[in-house]
């Protein structure tokens, strides 16, 4: 089992990341460009959405404005893009992911990462990745649950680079830190916002708002 705090401290740019465990989910966004960094998380009736911190300076909203978190019946869906809406509209995690693919941001072709937490404590993770052929590889990981204090970590990238290198392999089993520890461990220059839900207790951190 890995130490999530150490993983994040030693990685200046994992990009967007999801950590999910027993009744716990963390989701953060990071950015290198001004357009990506010009964001905050705001609460909605059924989750959160991204919003421009300075709307007048938005260059392209297509891949940065979306609902990362929404409820789907008694389940909670968390993703790094507008596939959240697709999953909720389909009413099925797998069906929603199967009609989507990686982001069209060549040359990075950022993976779409998603999770769903069910009321019985089970959860699933998915990553939709670009292949050299141009096709989409859709990987799914289903868990019956997790021990207390244990989570599974999935991010868009394994680190910084040009182009950015996509995450590889299975979700990483990690020791769950506190929300404050996660926020502190994320790279100070690149972190933007963090959403945490610990047994229904939701916290939102926004760098632009002084968190």
Describe the structure in your own words.
The protein is mainly beta and 211 residues long. It is 15% helix and 38% strand. The chain has five helices and 14 strands. The strands form two sheets. A seven-stranded mixed beta sheet has the order 1-12-11-2-3-13-14. The protein has a seven-stranded antiparallel beta sheet with strand order 4-5-6-7-8-9-10. A hairpin with a 2-residue loop joins strand 13 and strand 14. The two termini are 29 Å apart.
Helix amount: 10-25%
- Give the spatial strand order of the biggest sheet: 1-12-11-2-3-13-14
Overall residue-averaged pLDDT value: 97
For the CA atoms, what is the radius of gyration? 16 Å
Ranges where pLDDT stays below 50 over 5 or more residues in a row are: none
Secondary structural class: mainly beta
Report how far the terminal alpha carbons are from each other. 29 Å
Shape annotation: globular
Tally of individual helices: 5
Strand percentage: 35-45%
For the sheet with most strands, the description reads: 7 strands, mixed
Total strand segments: 14
Features:
mainly beta, seven-stranded antiparallel sheet, 211 residues, 38% strand
């Amino acid at each position: 089992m890995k130490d999530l705090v150490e993983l994040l401290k030693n990685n200046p740019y994992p990009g967007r990341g999801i950590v999910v465990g027993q009744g716990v989910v963390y989701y953060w966004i990071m950015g290198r460009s001004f357009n990506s960094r010009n964001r905050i998380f705001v609460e909605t009736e059924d989750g959160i959405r991204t919003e421009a911190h300075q709307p007048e300076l938005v260059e392209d909203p297509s891949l940065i404005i979306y609902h990362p978190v929404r409820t789907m019946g008694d389940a909670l869906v968390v993703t790094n893009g507008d596939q959240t809406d697709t999953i909720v509209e389909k009413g099925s995690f797998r069906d929603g992911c199967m009609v989507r693919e990686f982001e069209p941001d060549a040359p990075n072709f950022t993976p779409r990462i998603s999770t769903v937490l069910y009321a019985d404590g089970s959860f699933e993770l998915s990553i939709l990745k670009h292949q050299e052929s141009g096709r989409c590889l859709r990987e799914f990981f289903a868990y019956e649950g997790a021990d207390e204090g244990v989570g599974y970590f999935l991010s868009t990238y394994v680190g910084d680079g040009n182009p950015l290198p996509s995450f590889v392999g299975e979700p990483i089993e990690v020791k769950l830190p506190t929300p404050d520890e996660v926020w502190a461990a994320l790279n100070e220059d690149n972190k933007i916002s963090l959403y945490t839900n610990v047994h229904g207790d939701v916290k939102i951190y926004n760098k632009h708002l002084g968190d």
